[in-house]
Automatic annotation (TrEMBL):
Annotated stretches, region: Disordered: 1-26
Keyword Oxidoreductase: yes
Keyword check for Iron: yes
Cofactor: L-ascorbate
Top-rank taxon, per record: Eukaryota
Protein name listed in UniProt: Fe2OG dioxygenase domain-containing protein
Keywords: Dioxygenase, Iron, Metal-binding, Oxidoreductase, Vitamin C
One example GO MF annotation: iron ion binding
One matching Pfam family: OGFOD2-like
Organism this protein belongs to: Solanum lycopersicum
PROSITE patterns from the UniProt entry: FE2OG_OXY
Residue span, Fe2OG dioxygenase domain: 246-345
Gene: LOC101265129
Length: 392
């Protein structure tokens, strides 16, 4: 069982790189090996309650190492005296505060990954530009579009099947979209070969495949998550942050004779995973599921009712919790390429740090909880029986 740790690291880079937009202002005082020292504002603090009537500045045009939105939101928490000072002064103050919470090593990594992406995007010529912005009518099958526009549990259930609890499958992508995306990925890989560009693979477990976000598809995939996957996840995966999905990692994996053959049993670094087969012709490559588990129970044995195998068909999506243990059987002939979208919720991850009870989604925690309840009921019955007999 692999927890796919390095995948988590790669993912983090992706998730956070969208929040950092450029080089730092370089105006803080650094103390070499000991990190950053903040003499000017060390004593300054934010207010506990925001100044709700204050209209924050816009920071979009500045080259900052944190998201401009973060500055706008934080501005309401500034000490009142600072609210009407210059934008530069406010930025300086807020950045000093933010730097305390974002370690330097992490910032360097984010910056490196940003540069890596920019290098690709400024050199790579896309084949199908229409893939890079969301064109729902051209991408999705009509039944899927209809269900999303109706946006109810009933409309989703109408197009979905749930062959095993927590595993949802439905027709999603038009054949033409699948072909175009496959051609785009091939085009990208040709470019990588020709230019000998060293690319990062999607995760630690796949030696082949490409991160779609790295060559410009991140905006389209973000839209796919926000407008299509989040509405469904809000209904079916609420207890793992389905309604607050706020970042993604989008990539393709390639299986076949001269590619990866299979994929071991693992969990994803996501709250919700979308997995859609794009093609081509293949046999084998079934996706197998073995129950949802929290970190503590990730290696606990599978119950018979948790065993489920799914055979991919082109254009059909599978949606499941990231903690739903799974793997891919060997693709025995041909070539299989799947689109993966790992959707993550920062809110859920923050809550998880303080939450002990994971029985709302971990099957093992659930079984343990039921067993404890059963024992408690049995003990109470016994106690009542004793009291009853002593009363007689
Ligand atoms: Zn558990």
């Amino acid at each position: 069982m692999s927890q796919d740790g390095a995948t988590a690291m790669d993912w983090k880079k992706d998730g956070q790189s969208t929040n950092s937009t450029g080089n730092g202002m370089g105006n803080c005082v650094r103390n070499g090996s000991n990190g950053v020292v903040y003499p000017p504002y060390a004593s300054h603090r934010l207010r506990l309650n925001p100044s709700v009537d204050h209209k924050p500045d816009n920071y979009d045009d500045l080259q900052l190492d944190f998201s401009p939105l973060l500055f706008s939101s934080l501005e309401r928490y500034l000490p009142p005296a600072l609210l009407n000072s210059s934008r530069d002064q406010k930025v300086h103050f807020m950045r000093e505060i933010l730097l305390r919470y974002f370690p330097e090593g992490e910032r360097t990594r984010v910056q490196k990954h940003r540069e890596y992406r920019q290098k690709i995007i400024s050199n790579y010529q896309p084949l199908h530009r229409e893939l890079y912005t969301m064109h729902a009518q051209n991408f999705f099958v009509p039944s899927f579009l209809k269900a999303i526009s109706e946006n109810s549990e009933e409309s989703f259930r109408n197009i979905m099947s749930e062959p095993s609890p927590g595993v949802f499958t439905f027709e999603m992508l038009q054949p033409r979209f699948c072909e175009m995306l496959l051609a785009e990925v091939e085009n990208f890989e040709r470019w990588v070969r020709e230019t000998k560009f060293r690319i990062m693979r999607p995760n630690t477990m796949n030696r082949f495949g490409a991160v779609l976000d790295d060559f410009g598809l991140d905006a389209m995939l973000e839209k796919l998550m926000e407008d299509f996957i989040r509405p469904i996840s809000r209904v079916f995966f609420t207890e793992v942050g389905g309604s607050t999905l706020d970042s993604h990692h989008g990539f393709v994996v390639e299986y076949g004779m001269d590619r990866d053959v299979d994929l071991g049993f693992h969990v994803d670094d996501s709250e919700v995973t979308l997995n859609v087969c794009l093609g081509k012709q293949f046999s084998g490559g079934e996706l197998f599921f073995r129950g949802v588990r929290c970190e503590k129970h990730v290696n606990v044995e599978t119950q018979p009712e948790e065993i489920f195998d799914y055979a991919h068909t082109v254009g059909r999506a599978v949606l499941h919790r990231g903690r739903h243990r799974h793997g891919a059987r060997a693709t025995t002939s041909g070539q299989r390429i799947n689109l993966l979208l790992w959707c993550r919720s920062s809110v859920f991850r923050e809550i998880r740090k303080h939450q002990k009870d994971t029985s709302s989604w971990c099957a093992e925690c659930q079984r343990n909880k039921k067993e404890r309840q059963r024992q408690a009921v049995a003990a109470t019955k016994l106690e009542l029986l004793k009291r009853g007999s002593s009363a007689i």
